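note to self: dont lose this again. the chain is below, predicted strucutre after it. 247 aa total, dont forget to put it in the shared folder this time
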Amino acid sequence: MKATERPRFETTDRQRIYEYVERHGAVRPEELYDQQVVRVEPERFRQLVAIMKRDGALEEHSGKLRVALEAGEREEYSTANIDFEVRPARQEDFSGIVGVIRQVATERTYIEAETVAEQLDHEEALIRHNDLDTRMFFVATVEDEVVGWCHVQSPELSKLRHTAELTLGILEEFQGETIGSHLLQRGFAWARANGYEKVYQSVPATNEEAIAFLKDHGMTEEARRTDHYKLDDSYADEVMLARHLSK
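---
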């Protein structure tokens, strides 16, 4: 399923199954049945799940059902110092992503990333795709440990659904290894493939390194809000950057 395709189902039973899985992130089929998400006989339940997998609404990984949101495959990279991979995030990456976001936000004063971490603290699912919200994560891993993320999320307002907000971060010890560039390009490619016309990000003006990195990768400053952030006892401008994906 593409991000631009709103989930629609012919029967209430399929709708309920999808909503439960989408809300919880990853669910074993037996949990769905035991919770009586739908009240049908076992054989009918198995048929419903099989139909939803066939139609591309759900997929199964490691014995758990999850929303099937098209995001590509994992990609492996090597530098002189490390081997790493970039791939779509899975529900199992939840705690690793939150930990990296919080560490990067603390080190770099990354307000938007803090907001994402707070949002995740109040939800069970990492990936979301429903009538109001679409949220995708990509991760960079070294020896199966999350060391960086790219998050792309569309707003709820229909008039803004051609745009998507992006956040990105890498642990300090893994910077300078092209991880950030690969993550960012993966986020751009996913947004473009799913019909978004523009991605944007807001960064405190004090984070000069992040602003330079984003500009080097095609984002431009669209606006600036003076003294928008108060960091300790000092004020900082909010720099609003964007990239039009048709360019």
